[in-house]
Structures are given as C-alpha cells and as structure tokens.
Amino acid sequence: MEDGRVDQAARIVVIGAGQAGFSACVKLRALGHTGSITLIGDESHPPYQRPPLSKGLLLGETTEERLYFRPLSFYAEKGIELRLSSTVQAIERSARKVRLADGSEVAYDRLLLATGARPRVLPAEIGGELGGVFHVRNLVDINSMANRFREGQRVLIIGGGYIGLEAAAVSSKLGLQVTLVEASDRILQRVASPETSQFFRELHASHNVTVLEETGIRRLMGEDGHVRAAELSDGSVRPVDFVIVGIGVHPNAELARDAGIEVDNGIVVDADCRTSDPDVFAAGDCASFPWKAGRIRLESVGNAIDQGEAAAKAMLGESAGYLAKPWFWSDQFDVKLQIAGLSTGYDRVATRHGAGNAVSYWYYRGDELLAVDAMNDSRVYMAAKRLIEAGKSPPPHVIADTTVDLKSLL
Ligand code: FAD
Fold first, then answer.
1. What's the rounded Cα separation, in Å, for the pair 104 and 92?
2. CA-to-CA distance for 62 and 170, rounded, in angstroms?
3. Residues 181, 182, 188, CA angle at the centre, nearest 5°?
C-alpha cells in the first residue's frame, strides 16, 4: 500500500515454528491482521519452550505437553495454519513463494524467517557421529538420550557454557558420574566474569561434578559404532557411557543466503527486523540486528519474543524500532541465575552480597553499568534490570554497599 501500511489481507508466511515464529503469529492477530498466516516448522511438535530441555524436563519436573505454548486447537481458533514436519527448502523471491521439501509451494506477500539456530557438532573424524553422542536443542534430542540418565552412568559433557553446565547439573542430580571439559581457561569464559565462573565452578564441585578447564577433546573412541571413551587434550583417556556436546550454535541462515539475502553471522536485519529484501523479515536466534555501534545476534527467549513481536508490527507497515533489552536466566542445582544486560566489553566488576548464598556481579565499562549476574537474588535482578534499561549507572562502591537500598537509586 502507498502509505506504507500493509493490506490487512496480506498473506504472511513464517518459517520456523519456534519461540520467535510463534510470538510473531500471535502478535499479528493481536494487531488485527485478517489475512492468512502460515506457520511452517520442520519439527513434529507444536511450538514449545526450549529452556526446560536442559532443566526440568529430564528431571521429570515437567512433561512434553506442558512445554507447548498452546494446544493445537489454538492455531485453528486464531486462523493460523500450522504446518508441522514441513521443511522449507528454498525461497523464490521473484515469485514471492517458498518451496517445501514435499514439493508444495506457499505464496507470500510478507515473509518472516524465524529459523533459529542449530548446535555446533564435533567433526566425524574425531568421533562426533558415534552413537551415544548427543546435543540439546529439541525434543527429539532429549527423547533420544532420556533413557541414558540412569544412576551410575558416566557422562562426559563437552563445553562449559550454560547448556553444558545445566546438563551437568541435571545429570548429577540424577546420580550420574559427570565430567565436564571446557577448552578455554574457564567455564562461561565467553559470557561471564571470572567471579561468575568461580561461583559455578564451586557449585558444581560441591555436587561432585568434575570440571576440567583448559581441557579439550582429541577424539572420542567407539566400539561397534558406539562411544566408549574420550581422549582428552592432556592425553588421558576416560571411559564414558555417553557424551553431551554443548559447544555453541550456528544460526540457521542458509535459506536466506541461498536466496541472495544478506547474511553476516546471522540474517542481517535493520531495527524494523527487515532483511536486505524489503518483503522479508527475520527474528530470533537467526537474526543479526543493530546494537550500539555494531550488530549483535542474541540467543535468548526474551529476544525471540520481543523481536518476533517487533517483526509482526513491521510486517504490518508500522515502525518497530526494535531496541533489545537483553535478559537471560539459568537454573543449576539450587541456584537461579538471572542476567540483565550484556556484559560484552566490560572492564571491571563490582560484587554485592545478599542474604545466604545470594550474590550479584555488576559489570562496568568505565563508569557505565552494562550488565548484572544475580544469583538467587530476584529483587537485585529486578532493580538492576530497571537501572540498566533507564541508562543509570550507580558507581561500583555504591553497589557494593549493602546498606544502600537499590530502589533508592532508580
Ligand atoms: P528456535 O526456538 O530454535 O525455533 C526455530 C525453529 O525453526 C526450529 O523449530 C527449527 O527446527 C525450525 N526451522 C529451521 N529451519 C527451518 C526450515 N528450513 N523449515 C522449517 N522449519 C525450520 N534462553 C533463555 O533466555 N533462557 C534459558 O534458560 C534458555 N535455555 C535454553 C536451553 C536450551 C536447551 C536451548 C536449546 C535453548 C535455551 N535458550 C534459553 C535459548 C532459547 O530457547 C532460544 O533463544 C529461543 O528458542 C530462540 O527462538 P527462535 O524462535 O529464534 O528459534
């Protein structure tokens, strides 16, 4: 339409039935879109939450069905055509349609790419394809490893990021013998301060998880196609019953790249979630968007929801002006970690102690407060989030002073 608003009857197609794709579809209907919405996902389950996959699901604290955002009937009620077990193979931009693996085609006026990310894998040459080597991304992954979580089993976890540490905590709680190896000099090196790494190192040690830092994998060794042992970078060999690989993800950006859409560590979008093709948008783990002076790609639920909703707005011709407000959480043993902001580029850290084992680490660059890691301290997390979002930076000595009420700083 000439005024920039999109015809309410426009055909909208969303590729990827995960957090961002789901959020976008719901928002489109909430904004009054009356045209067709087709949500295409290659998994067989209705859209579901991923965080419990490495937390409560294996512990039996929740069930598969409780992870679904909505029952199947919801999609019919909202007039959202949900096509599950359907992989989009190509985007034909000139004809404005997508081609599916079953040969069918779906035409669009606006297209949203919400294809997420997939785990990085160990190369086959070092045993990455042996049986008993698992990743943690979707329900199929969890279901394929669930019967391994038996007391006394020896699990090797490769990668000391949040997914690896959560998998280690779950394994330990279920009585497995857990070894976690991290190639860099400390766990959480990429995302957190030495203080936070130390906190989680001690937590895991106190639950008998063996954490080996500066330790990589030379190769996994198998018998009859099944992993049996791991040779570590120090030359030692450890017998294992199974392995969980948590070494980061790749954005699913190939579909966009093959269609000639700009890709650079994810699908490049502007603040309106628009790609280099004005009719194609992207959101969630797959999208690289403007952040401060550069670009960023976030892998978090909060971003997938907010950016999915921003994309919905933008697809209807409204300005979305997406400004990420990063937040994240992780559950390990009895610790709830909540993170506000992004610590990238920090040069110092202030510590604030709370009651019991509650503690928070505050990241600064110069005088600017960038981010906070709060362990078992939701009140501190909430205050920190509000301070960061308001652009306020109380000095580190004020933060460290526990007689100061954080609310008075807001
Ligand atoms: P996804 O949820 O990955 O959805 C993308 C979907 O697109 C997938 O179903 C994929 O199969 C599908 N797809 C891809 N290509 C195609 C195609 N060509 N055709 C059809 N379908 C396709 N975040 C937090 O904030 N806190 C946490 O504690 C936390 N814990 C996590 C624990 C685990 C185990 C995992 C895996 C993630 C966790 N995250 C957490 C991250 C969070 O879940 C993701 O950031 C979020 O799910 C991203 O949503 P998305 O829609 O961008 O991608």
1. 13
2. 13
3. 130
As a whole number of angstroms, the distance between CA 99 and CA 119 comes to 25
**344 part of a folded domain:** yes
Q: What CATH number is associated with residue 147?
A: 3.50.50.60
Q: Whose CA is nearest to atom 45 of ligand 1?
A: 300
C-alpha–C-alpha distance, residues 46 and 69, integer Å? 8
Q: Is residue 306 part of a domain?
A: yes
Q: What pTM was computed for the model?
A: 0.96
Q: Which atom of ligand 1 is nearest to the CA of 19?
A: 51
Q: Please, are residues 354 and 383 in contact by the beta-carbon 8 Å criterion?
A: no
Residue 324 lies in a domain: no
CA of 325 to the centre of ligand 1 (A): 18
Output the DSSP codes for 169-229. HHHHHTT-EEEEEESSSSTTTTTS-HHHHHHHHHHHHTTT-EEEET--EEEEEEETTEEEE
**Structural domains of the chain, count:** 3
Kindly give the distance from the C-alpha atom of residue 193 to the centroid of ligand 1, in angstroms, as a whole number. Answer: 25
CA angle 53, 56, 58 (to 5 degrees): 65
Q: Whose CA is nearest to atom 41 of ligand 1?
A: 300
What residues contact residue 102 under an 8 Å CB cut-off, 6+ apart? 86
29-76, pLDDT tens digit by residue? Answer: 999 999 999 999 999 999 999 999 999 898 989 999 999 999 999 999
Q: Is 115 in the pocket of ligand 1 (CB under 6 A)?
A: yes
- 324: CB partners within 8 A, 6+ apart: 289, 291, 296, 298, 303, 306, 307
Domain span at 367: 334-409
The three-state secondary structure class of 117 is strand
